[in-house]
Design goal:
The structure is a homodimer. Chain A has about 210 residues and is mainly alpha-helical. Chain A contains ten helices and no strands. The first copy, chain A, has helices spanning about 5-20, 25-30, 35-40, 45-65, 80-90, 90-110, 110-120, 125-155, 165-185, 190-205. The longest helix of chain A has 28 residues, at about 125-155. The relative contact order of chain A is 0.10. Chain A binds a DNA duplex (18 and 18 nucleotides) through α3.
DNA sequence: GTCTATAGACCGATAGAC
DNA sequence: GTCTATCGGTCTATAGAC
């Protein structure tokens, strides 16, 4: 890995722990064994480092959701042919697994964790960051789940109901437990179990098979 | 209002906007028309100002929940006699109103808003602050709702189900929409409506009257 | 692309006059 | 309880040698 990338990696680590204002250029340079002056040969300011981290994370996050078949930005579009094929026959159990995979990755992957923490403590710094936070950590999954439930209702897999409300009832508790998990890592096991219980019971409650 | 209190008020305002590290003693002093040296006659350090704000907010938040009959710290205790009297005969509609009152106050009251923002961006600064955030903004209402649903199930008002899961499905979406509301105040009306829709549909879905 | 040195501003906190 | 002045330190960022 070259110096330019190592700087972003170290900066992200520290921004996520101490925030933007709590992290100095010297703090970033020291662990890399270079002087802070050297940083300015790669980035013209501290703000540029922060912006680059955000920019890069946006790309990586889209890639991740793409892998999980969650189409993130294009909320206006309908579900793709592929999605319909995959989900029209999916079982509730399969959906649980899908969500749990997403949660486990988000919570254990060091990079995801650092970006989420950094965005959490920076969400009020500008309206752009606030909107990005909402879009990334709330609406991406919520919009997807909404369309999914619409399909599942149509297919008769789950009971009648407003897909948007169902999506919120399904996904909001997942966000909530992930928040506890982030703040109190010692409760990781407990949170994972709560999420598992929640998704299972959600599908028991909404399933048409009684 | 005396100077000591005005300092806390101004500090909270700025901490909630720019964070602890982003706010200097001069920043706090200037709007009050005093020098930063004067601050040190009232508080021995910047950290002490922060701690006092947290301490005071804890008391005020307990008072607020007390008014709403939500007993916050004592999660081990059973619901009080008063609670049982009030809620054993309460209608789903009444419960909706109760939640909406809480939400509207939390989101429009300037002090509540500032404290919540400050805690949100400070939640990773120490494990104590993280725990406080969870306890205050998640578990207080969640634990209360859990007991409440237990009662409502027992009384036959709503359908069978795990009270803890039900509480999460009921309250987590409220937290989620409040988060959007905080980050994007221009969406306030939309969020309020979403919360209203959610609580109404939740009781429609879980009610025993079909 | 790295370093040392430094500019210039600002930081938290203190001393002492009034 | 307020002020001005100041301390010692850190901050972002730059200059210039190698």
């Amino acid at each position: 890995m070259n110096t330019k990338e190592m700087i972003l990696e170290e900066a992200l680590k520290q921004f996520s722990e101490k925030g933007y204002d709590g992290t100095s250029m010297s703090d970033i340079a020291a662990p890399l064994g270079i002087s802070k002056a050297a940083l300015y040969k790669h980035y013209k300011s501290k703000q540029e480092i922060f912006d680059k981290i955000i920019e890069e994370s946006e790309i990586k996050y889209k890639d991740l959701l793409e892998k999980l078949s969650v189409h993130y930005i294009d909320n206006s579009k309908k579900l793709s042919k592929k999605d319909l094929d995959v989900y029209s026959e999916i079982s509730a159990k399969g959906l649980c697994e899908n969500v749990l995979t997403f949660v486990r990755f988000s919570m254990t992957d060091e990079y995801s964790k650092q970006v989420r923490r950094m965005l959490t403590i920076s969400q009020f710094q500008s309206s752009e960051l606030g909107q990005m936070y909402t879009r990334r950590y709330v609406e991406a999954m919520l919009g997807y789940d909404e369309k999914l439930f619409k399909q599942l209702i149509k297919a008769g897999v789950i009971k009648e109901g407003n897909p948007k409300t169902l999506a919120a009832m399904f996904y909001a508790p997942v966000i909530m437990y992930m928040g506890i998990w982030d703040r109190e890592p010692e409760r990781a096991k407990e949170c994972e179990k709560s999420i598992k219980n929640h998704v299972e019971q959600f599908f028991m409650m909404t399933s048409n098979r009684e």
